[in-house]
Specification:
The complex is a heterodimer.
Chain A: H1 2-10, H2 15-36, H3 43-58, H4 72-84, H5 88-114, H6 117-129, H7 131-134, H8 143-162, H9 169-189, H10 196-208, H11 213-230, H12 232-242, H13 252-259, H14 267-278, H15 290-293, H16 318-335, H17 337-351, H18 357-363, H19 378-402, H20 408-424, H21 437-450, H22 457-476, H23 478-488
Chain B: H1 4-23, H2 27-35, H3 41-54, H4 60-71, H5 76-81, H6 85-88, H7 104-110, H8 121-131, H9 147-157, H10 165-176
Helix pairs in contact in B: 2-3, 7-8, 8-9
The chains are: A mainly alpha, B mainly alpha.
C-alpha cells in the first residue's frame, strides 16, 4: 500500500484538478463574503484598523503599549483605506478571498507530494468545505495573508529536501532561497514563525547530512539567514525607533502576562463577555472546569492583592516591558508548578477546541440578520462547523499515524504541528490552530483516500493516545463549548 | 561556492547596516526637532516617535512640555499626535492621581468644550486616536473602535464630510454608556 502511495505521488501534480477545485473554493469564499457583508469589526480587527488609520494620518507605525505587531497587515489596511476610504476594508477582504486560492493550491500540492494525487483531490474538497478556515477571508485578521506566505515557504523547503543531492546544488539553493524569502515576508505579517525557523533548519540539517556536513550546514543556515535579511529593514527600523533589536514584532511579553498569570483568559471567550453581559448572561469563564483554570491559592502575606502579577506599566520602554513580563511569567510558573501544569492542559484544550472564529462570529450575532447565513441555516451551519473541525482533527490523527509516509515531509508536518501545540502552551484560542489547518486537511485527506496504509503496533498506540488526548481535551472545555454552540445557534442560557 | 549565497546575504546585511548607521538620528537631535516649532509637522511627529519610544524613563519634557507644544501649535495634526501612545505613555500625573488615571493634558483636550462647530473632523480624530487605542485608561484607551466610528474616522482623515455634530454626539453618548458596569476579566467567581 505504501508503495502504491509513493508511485501515485511520484506522478506529476494534477494541475487541472487542483485549478478547478481552487477556483471552486475561491467561489465558495466569495459567496461567504457576499453573505457576511456588511460585517461589524471586532477585537483585534479594531486594533489593526487603528494602526492602519494612524499610519495613514501620521505616517508613523505605532506600537500598542502592550505589544508591537509586525507591520504588513496594518500597512495593507492603511493603503486600502487611503485608496478606497471605508470601502478599503471590503477591498482587503476580497484580496483575502483571492489569497485563499494560494492556500487551497498549496494544501492540494502538499497532499499530492506527501501522499498521492487522489489525496490531493480529497484535500481540495476538504479545503473547499472547510468553512471555519474559509471564514477568515471575510474577517480582518491576517490569517489568509499569512498562510498564503507560510505554506509556500514550507513547500519550497520540502522541495529543496526532495532534491537534496549534490548534483542539484543550484536547484536546492534556489528552493531554500525562495523558502527564506517567503518566511521573511511571513514575518512581516506575524511574528509566529520566528522560532519555527531554527526548528525547520534542524530538519534540513539532519535530512541533508548525507551530502556532507559542510553542505548540510550550508543548507540548514540558508533559510533563516535569508529570512533575517528580508526582515532586516524592519529590524533596523525597530532598532532606530526603540534602540533594541526586535525582529518582526514583540508580543511575547503580553502573551506571558496573559498566559502565565493567575487569571485564566481565553480570547475566544473574552470576546463573548460583552455579548453575554448585554443579554444578562454570566461570563463563560464561570463555566470552566475549576481544576484547569483556578488560580493558585493566595499566598500568606500577599497583602490581599490576590494572586497573579500585575502588568508593568511602570516600565515606560515598550520592549523592555516585554522582557520583564516574560521573566515575571516564568518566575510565576516556577513558583506554582502544579498550577502551571493543570492550566497548560486547559491551554491545549483551548487550541484544539472545535470552536472557530466562524462559530464565534455567529455567537456574537455579527452576521447580518437578513443574510442567507442567518435564519434557518444558522444552527445547521454552526453544528456543521463544530463537527467538521472535530472530525478533521480525528481524521488527521488517523492520517498521521496510518497514512503519512516517513521522510522529510513527515518531519516538516510533525515539526509544524508540534510548534503550534508548543506555542499554544503560552496562550491559546481556536485561531492559533489556523497555521496547521491545511496540514490537518492533508492528513485527513490521506486517510480518507487510502485508509490505514501503514499499520504497526507503535502507530496504533500513537493513534489511541492521540484520540484519548483529544477526547480528554474536548471534555475539559466542554461546558464552554456547549454554551458557545448554543449562542452561535441563536440561543444561550 | 556552497557559501556564496551566505556571503552575498551577509554583504546585503552589511550594506543595510551601513545605511541604517548613516541615517541614524541621535536622541538629542530628535528631541531638538520634536520641540522645533519651525520644523515640518511630519518631521516633528517622527522625531517625537523616536524620542518617546527610546526613553527608558517617563520624561517630563515629553509628557508635559512637548504635549503642550503640540496642543498649542495650531496645527490639527500635531495636536492629534499628542493623543498617540508615544506621548501618552510619558504622561505626568499628580501625586494624588488614582491608579490608572488617564493622561491629564490629553484628557482635558479630548474632552474639552466643543467649539461652535461642534464635532469637527479634528475633534473627532482627536477623540478616536485618544480613546480607541490599546493600553487601557492609563494611556487614555477605553473600548475598541467600532465600524461606525471607523467609517467616520476614515472620512475625517480623508477630508470627506462627516455626519452632523448632533448625530456624532448622540452616537458617542450611546457608546459611552455601552456595557457600563462590565466586570473586569477574572473578577467573576471561579
Amino acid at each position: 500500500m505504501t508503495q502504491d502511495l509513493q508511485s501515485d505521488g511520484a506522478q506529476g501534480a494534477p494541475w487541472r484538478v487542483i485549478a478547478a477545485i481552487a477556483a471552486f473554493g475561491v467561489a465558495v469564499r466569495a459567496v461567504l463574503l457576499l453573505w457576511a457583508s456588511p460585517l461589524e469589526i471586532q477585537s483585534d480587527e479594531s486594533n489593526y484598523l487603528y494602526l492602519a488609520a494612524a499610519l495613514q494620518h501620521f505616517g508613523v507605525y505605532l506600537d500598542q503599549q502592550r505589544y508591537l505587531w509586525p507591520p504588513a497587515y496594518p500597512w495593507l489596511l492603511g493603503e486600502a483605506i487611503g485608496a478606497f476610504g471605508a470601502d478599503g476594508l471590503q477591498v482587503v477582504r476580497w484580496m483575502q478571498v483571492a489569497a485563499s486560492s494560494v492556500i487551497g493550491v498549496m494544501t492540494m500540492l502538499f497532499a499530492w507530494r506527501l501522499i498521492s494525487r487522489r489525496a490531493a483531490a480529497v484535500a481540495g474538497i476538504l479545503w473547499v468545505i472547510h468553512l471555519p478556515l474559509g471564514a477568515y477571508t471575510h474577517l480582518l485578521w491576517s490569517e489568509p495573508l499569512f498562510l498564503a506566505l507560510l505554506l509556500p515557504a514550507l513547500w519550497h523547503l520540502l522541495r529543496a529536501l526532495d532534491v537534496a543531492d549534490g548534483e542539484l546544488q543550484g536547484s536546492v539553493t534556489r528552493r531554500l532561497l525562495a523558502s527564506g524569502v517567503l518566511f521573511g515576508l511571513a514575518l512581516y505579517v506575524k511574528e509566529w514563525p520566528l522560532f519555527l525557523l531554527p526548528l525547520v533548519s534542524v530538519v534540513v540539517l539532519v535530512r541533508s547530512l548525507r551530502v556532507g556536513v559542510a553542505d548540510a550546514v550550508a543548507r540548514a543556515t540558508l533559510v533563516p539567514l535569508v529570512a533575517l535579511v528580508v526582515t532586516m529593514p524592519w529590524t533596523l527600523r525597530n532598532h532606530e525607533v526603540y534602540g533594541r533589536v526586535v525582529v518582526a514584532g514583540a508580543t511575547l511579553g503580553e502573551n506571558a502576562h496573559v498566559g502565565l498569570n493567575a487569571r485564566y483568559m481565553n480570547f475566544d471567550l473574552n470576546a463573548l463577555r460583552k455579548v453575554r453581559l448585554s443579554r444578562g448572561l454570566d461570563s463563560l469563564e464561570t463555566r470552566s472546569r475549576r481544576a484547569f483554570v483556578a488560580a493558585p491559592a493566595a499566598e500568606p502575606g500577599s497583602g490581599g492583592s490576590g494572586p497573579g502579577w500585575t502588568r508593568r506599566d511602570d516600565i515606560v520602554h515598550p520592549i523592555d516591558r516585554q522582557k520583564a513580563h516574560v521573566a515575571a511569567g516564568i518566575e510565576y510558573a516556577l513558583d506554582h508548578p502544579g498550577w502551571a501544569v493543570r492550566t497548560r492542559v486547559k491551554k491545549l484544550s483551548d487550541v484544539v477546541t472545535p470552536m472557530s472564529f466562524f462559530t464565534r462570529t455567529y455567537a456574537m450575532d455579527r452576521y447580518p440578520p437578513d443574510s442567507p447565513l442567518s435564519g434557518g441555516v444558522r444552527a445547521p451551519l454552526v453544528l456543521y462547523a463544530l463537527s467538521f473541525s472535530a472530525l478533521l482533527m480525528l481524521l488527521a490523527a488517523a492520517g498521521y499515524f496510518f497514512t503519512l509516509p516517513g521522510g522529510s515531509g513527515r518531519d516538516i508536518v510533525t515539526v509544524t504541528i508540534a510548534y503550534v501545540l508548543a506555542t499554544a502552551l503560552l496562550v491559546a484560542m481556536s485561531r492559533f490552530r489556523a497555521p496547521i489547518e491545511p496540514f490537518l486537511i492533508v492528513l485527513a485527506a490521506g486517510f480518507l483516500a487510502h485508509g490505514p496504509a501503514t499499520r504497526s503496533v507503535p502507530r496504533a498506540v500513537g493513534m489511541a493516545i492521540t484520540v484519548l488526548a483529544l477526547a480528554g481535551l474536548w471534555w475539559v472545555s466542554l461546558p464552554e463549548t456547549v454554551e458557545v454552540a448554543r449562542m452561535a445557534m441563536g440561543g444561550g442560557s | 561556492m556552497r557559501w556564496l549565497p551566505h556571503l552575498s546575504l551577509l554583504g546585503i546585511a552589511a550594506l543595510m547596516l551601513v545605511v541604517a548607521r548613516v541615517r541614524h538620528v541621535p536622541t538629542p537631535e530628535a528631541l531638538q526637532t520634536a520641540f522645533d516649532e519651525t520644523a515640518d509637522a511630519d518631521d516633528r511627529i517622527w522625531a517625537t516617535h523616536l524620542a518617546a519610544c527610546r526613553a527608558t524613563e517617563a520624561d517630563l519634557r515629553l509628557g508635559e512640555s512637548l504635549v503642550t507644544s503640540f496642543l498649542d501649535s495650531g496645527d490639527d495634526r500635531l495636536a492629534e499626535a499628542a493623543m498617540l501612545i508615544d506621548l501618552c505613555r510619558h504622561a505626568v500625573r499628580g501625586n494624588d492621581a488614582p491608579a490608572g488615571a488617564s493622561p491629564p493634558l490629553q484628557d482635558a483636550y479630548a474632552y474639552g468644550r466643543l467649539g461652535p462647530s461642534g464635532w469637527t473632523p479634528h475633534r473627532f480624530r482627536t477623540l478616536m486616536f485618544y480613546r480607541r487605542k490599546v493600553g487601557g485608561s492609563y494611556v487614555g484607551g477605553v473600548r475598541r473602535m467600532d465600524l461606525t466610528e471607523l467609517t467616520w474616522l476614515i472620512a475625517a482623515i480623508r477630508g470627506e464630510a462627516i455626519p452632523p455634530s448632533d448625530v456624532i454626539a448622540e452616537y458617542l453618548t450611546e457608546r459611552s454608556g455601552e456595557f457600563a458596569g462590565l466586570p473586569r476579566p477574572g473578577s467573576a467567581p471561579r
